[in-house]
Design goal:
KAP_P-loop; KAP NTPase domain-containing protein; globular; 387 residues; Helicase, Ruva Protein, domain 3; binds adenosine-5'-triphosphate; binds magnesium ion
């Protein structure tokens, strides 16, 4: 295939959060709900949850409210709770430092200078506010973790109050908290709560899946000591996309070469992805790179590519005992409930053993369950095939 075409395709399939509406598939319902939250709710912290790569950042990118000033904050410094809150303030100030509004600009500059000084105070890097401000910030924030958290909160509070005064309502989007451990995320939010729970401030954060589960249990009163509902007023869960949406997503991206993947090749990619757009893009891109000599990608080429990727990636990280293999191979044939699976394995494995193994593999995410039916993630199914 000519280089130009291949370059276009590989670039189009590159995995990064999008903000171009033309490329977005689905998420209409979720975005409508999030936009309503942003527009109508008076205040509060709200969550967007979902497995990694399902599209949290992408969804956050499209949230908007006509009546609010939108601020997107990407937390990058995460050494401790204090550092995260400091980073929050730093990013908040940077966003406003070029504000057209003179009052906002002035306070933002003062805030930025405060945090740079605070962070670099007493470190060998010295000099917070100079032409190398960014460099010294990055270094010192890692080196000095203790600073006056109360002043930081006060600055956040002042800056937010001014923004409310100027814009009426503020919509703060905080991304990348979902990469932290559950306890840490809660800790951080709990500590930011005092400054974020303010009339006319809406905060929407990305969260790890585990928090969603716990939050739902709280709401339904299934948890002993429900306290997540004290922090979160509402939460939106992002389900995996449908196979149709996955195919649409790829076609939208490679729109100059709509015939590059044959239809059943796209089906195969969608099946492998289990509705995770990141996995779909990854496989699609890899297959393109494996087959630079081909003008068209067939289903067979996708299968071959998947097998190659699976054996490269899973061979080193996953190994199964004979009993596990027997159970997984049986389950690979079709999804079934526990009792049926145990019965089918009757002659090969002891009943109790099957139950124990199923539970353990479920905990590890090797076996999935939906409404009592056990099934395998596509990646595991492919892996079993090549064992
Ligand atoms: N609804 C969508 N329409 C089109 N592309 C999408 C959609 N959702 C996600 N993608 C694509 O899938 C990939 C993963 O999305 P994104 O980075 O938003 O996921 P994430 O949940 O934020 O992941 P992480 O857990 O790593 O932060 C990106 O390449 C993104 O462009
Ligand atoms: Mg993300």
């Amino acid at each position: 295939m000519e280089n130009k075409k291949l370059k276009y395709i590989v670039e189009a399939l590159f995995d990064k959060p999008i903000d171009d509406k033309e490329l977005l598939v689905n998420r209409k319902k979720e975005l409508e709900h999030l936009n309503k939250i942003a527009y109508f709710q008076p205040m509060g912290i709200f969550g967007v949850c979902g497995e990694t790569g399902v599209g949290k950042t992408t969804t956050l990118n499209f949230i908007n409210a006509e009546n609010a000033k939108r601020l997107y904050i990407l937390i990058t410094e995460k050494d401790s709770k204090e550092v995260i809150i400091g980073d929050f303030l730093y990013k908040l100030s940077l966003l406003q430092i070029n504000s057209k509004n003179k009052k906002v600009r002035k306070l933002a500059t003062e805030t930025r200078d405060f945090i740079l000084n605070e962070m670099s105070y007493n470190t060998s890097y010295g000099g917070g506010v100079n032409f190398a401000a960014n460099v010294s910030y990055e270094k010192s924030i890692n080196n000095k973790k203790r600073f006056n958290i109360y002043s930081v909160k006060e600055y956040i509070d002042n800056l937010l109050s001014l923004l409310i005064e100027e814009y009426g309502k503020v919509l703060i989007i905080v991304d990348e908290l979902d990469k932290e451990k559950k306890e840490d995320v809660l800790n951080i939010l709990d500590s930011l709560k005092s400054v974020l729970f303010k009339e006319n401030i809406i905060t929407i954060v990305s969260l790890p899946f585990s928090i969603y589960r716990e939050y739902s249990n709280d709401r339904m009163r299934w948890n002993e000591s429900g306290n997540l509902e004290n922090i979160f007023k509402d939460m939106v869960f992002l389900e995996p996309l449908t196979a149709e949406d996955i195919k649409k997503m790829i076609l939208k991206r490679i729109k100059e070469y709509p015939d590059y993947f044959e239809m059943d090749a796209l089906d195969e990619i969608a099946a492998f992805s289990d509705g995770n757009p990141r996995d779909a893009l990854w496989i699609a891109q890899q297959v393109a790179l494996f087959n630079t000599d081909k003008n068209k990608i067939t289903k067979e080429l996708v299968k071959k590519g998947i097998r190659r990727i699976i054996s490269q990636n899973l061979n080193n990280s996953l190994s199964f005992t004979d009993i596990q293999k027997t159970i997984l191979k049986e389950l690979a044939k079709e999804p079934v409930d526990r009792t049926t699976l145990v019965k089918r394995l009757e002659k090969k494995v002891k009943r109790q053993t099957v139950y124990t193994y199923i539970n353990r593999m479920k905990d590890e995410g090797i076996i999935l369950e939906k409404s009592g039916i056990l099934y395998l993630p596509s990646k595991i199914k492919y892996y079993i095939e090549i064992l």
